[in-house]
Structure formats: C-alpha cells, structure tokens
Specification:
The protein is mostly helical. The chain has 3 domains: 59 residues, no CATH class; 113 residues, Helicase, Ruva Protein, domain 3 (Orthogonal Bundle), CATH 1.10.8.270; 136 residues, Orthogonal Bundle (Cyclin A, domain 1). The protein contains 19 helices and no strands. The longest helix is centred in the middle third of the chain and has 17 residues. InterPro entries: Rab-GAP-TBC_dom (IPR000195), Rab-GAP_TBC_sf (IPR035969), Rab_GAP_TBC_domain (IPR050302). It comes from Symbiodinium natans. This is Tbc1d10b protein. Pfam families: RabGAP-TBC.
C-alpha cells in the first residue's frame, strides 16, 4: 500500500471490541485513553465518542456529512462503516457458516490462491493468517455469486477490509459481511462481472469530466498518449487500495462508504486537481510514474477528499450532474441485478 501499513491501535478496538468503560464515561476520562497520535485529532475523536451509543452509531444526514467532511478516526472507523453500509442486515444466525460451505469451481480456487501472495506484499499486518482469511472470503464470495466468481482487484478490496477490521472479534466474518454489502448494496460486483460494465461507465464519466474540468491536463495527456486505462483501471478495480497508503485509502473509503462507488470518479479527479501543475510539467514516463504513486511524497487522504468535494459543486449543474447521477443510479439504485437477487435468495434459506 505504497507508504506502508500502519498497525491498528491497541486502545479503542473498533467495531464491537471490549468496552473501555462499564459506565457512562466523561469526556476527560475518554481523553485519557488516547495515545499520542490520537491526541492530534482529539476534538474529532470526542465528537465520535459522544455519538457512540454503546458501540453503535445512528446514521443520520448529519452523521453522513461528518464522515464525508471530516472522516472517521481509526478507532471508530470499522463501526462507522458497519452502520453506514447496513451491515446488520446480513447478521442472520447461521448464514455466514452456510455461505462458507459453498465451494466455487477448482479454476476459481486456483486463481484465488495464486493472488494471495500478490495482495499487499510486504505489509506486516497482512500475515499468513490474514491470507487464509482472505482466501476463505474470496471462495465464499465466488460461491455466493457464481455468475461473478473471482476477478483480480477483489483480493485488494477484501484484503483491505480485513486490515481495517483489525482485531475486532469475528473480524473475518465482519469483513465478509461488509464485502457482501459492497458487492450488492453498492453494486461493486458490476465492476467485476462479465464485460466490467461499471468500470467502463466510470471510465467514460472520468474521461468526459477530465476534459471539461481540466482541459489542459486532458490535452497534455492526449499529446503524451496517456489514456485513463493506463492508470484509472487499477485505481477503480482496487478502490484505491493499491496506489494509496493505508491511511489515505481508508480516508477515501470514508467517502465511498457514504456516497457509493460513484465517489471513485470524484476521487480520481481530486488526485488530478492536486497534481495538476506537476502533471503538466511531466513527459509520458513522468506522468505514468506519478500516477502509479510508487515513489515520491504520498498523497494525504484528507487532501484528496477535500479536492474531490470541491469539484463536486462544479460538477453538479447541468449535464455534468447528469453524468454522475447516471453512475449513482447504476451503483446504488435501479433494478436489482441477478447476482443480488441470488444473494437474497441464499440469505432466506
């Protein structure tokens, strides 16, 4: 993940871990549990502490706005994502265990096993245990959605969920439930099913909006034969978990979890906005090197989201807003795709 993975904090285990207090704690008592890094965002942590109802968040418009604008501190991120994705809808007793018994075909299993060591290589937290949990998640996903199966990119999405879940009780089960919600409720399976329809749609949207919002960058890219497929495909199929470091990826995921997969277009444009002047000075090799994000100063997730949200107001009016609305309908609304109907049928069994 670019600049490396940061281990989960020892205190404040997110998403249903042991409670720190057996009574209603005061703000001062809570602040005393913060470590040195957390004290840097004390005020934001206090906001989430006050919104925390015995390990759960109530999702309101105000809560969504808070997550979009400010992000979620690490100790609260997992339970916030669970609330925002509607994770509890999948917590039917025994469902997870039944899904885990659904085995995909041998070809799919072989493809999954081949990609395990390619997933976050060198990241200390992604150890052999996490790799086995990832294999189980991907096998179960392929069994649950046989028409989709397994596609490269899913390994990074599922693996990232495992890393964010950290040490919560039943982390693998939690991560799988969130993966299913991402695939069904957020329509992420449309990124990976035959023909990659959602990837193609978001690439089309990005291409049009890049030309409208940054005509100089678009012209410079064209002159250097830089097409979106050379960099955007990887960004979208891994939901930015590959080019960005852990904290940056987690912050842009805050926006994705709130807004749906359509946010990936804004996030990609936000990166261009931040790097606009530098990109215009680079040749073909330099542009590709920058967009690969392998070297150089890593981008901060908060800055990417800030840039993306600033662009949102420019995109909203007229036909540009229609472009994004089309993506929102595809990725979060409209008729239920066949893989989602299949998942609902399995859940009712």
């Amino acid at each position: 993940m670019g600049c490396g993975c940061v281990s989960q904090h020892q205190v404040g285990i997110p998403g249903g871990g042991p409670r720190q207090f057996l009574y209603t704690a005061t703000d001062k008592e809570f602040v005393r549990t913060l470590d040195k890094e957390e004290l840097k965002e004390k005020n934001l942590l206090l906001t989430y502490f006050r919104l925390d109802h015995e390990g759960h968040f109530v999702v309101t418009d105000g809560f969504r706005d808070l997550v979009r604008r400010k992000g979620v501190p690490r100790r609260y991120r997992w339970r916030a994502w669970r609330a925002l994705t509607g994770w509890s809808a999948l917590s039917k007793p025994g469902w997870y265990e039944r899904i885990m018994r659904k085995a995909p075909d041998s070809k799919t299993v072989e493809a999954i096993e081949k990609d395990l060591d390619r997933t976050f290589p060198g990241v200390e937290d992604f150890d052999d245990r996490k790799k086995r949990e990832l294999a189980n998640m991907l096998r179960a996903h392929a069994g649950l959605f046989p028409s989709v199966g397994y596609c490269q990119g899913m390994n990074f999405v599922a693996g990232f969920l495992l890393l964010v879940a950290g040490r919560v009780p039943d982390a693998a089960k939690d991560a799988f439930f969130l993966l299913v919600q991402m695939m069904v409720k957020y329509r992420a399976n449309l990124l990976f099913c035959d023909g990659l329809p959602l990837l193609k749609l978001h690439t089309f949207q990005y291409r049009i909006l890049l030309q409208r919002l940054f005509p100089d960058v678009h012209r410079h890219f064209t002159e250097n034969q830089i097409t979106p497929e050379l960099y955007l495909t990887k960004w979208i199929l891994t939901l930015f978990t590959q080019p960005l470091c852990f904290d940056a990826a987690a912050r842009v995921w805050d926006l994705i979890v709130c807004d749906g997969l359509q946010a990936v277009v804004l996030i990609a444009l936000g990166v261009v906005k931040l790097w606009r002047s530098r990109l215009l000075q680079e040749d073909t090799e330099g542009i590709l090197e920058m967009l690969s994000m392998r070297d150089g100063e890593p981008l901060a997730g908060g800055e990417i989201v800030k840039a993306a949200l600033a662009l949102e107001s420019q995109i909203a009016p007229g036909s540009q807003g229609t472009l994004l609305a089309t993506g929102r309908q595809c990725s979060s609304g409209g008729s239920m795709p066949s893989f989602a109907l299949h998942a609902q049928a399995v859940q009712r069994e």
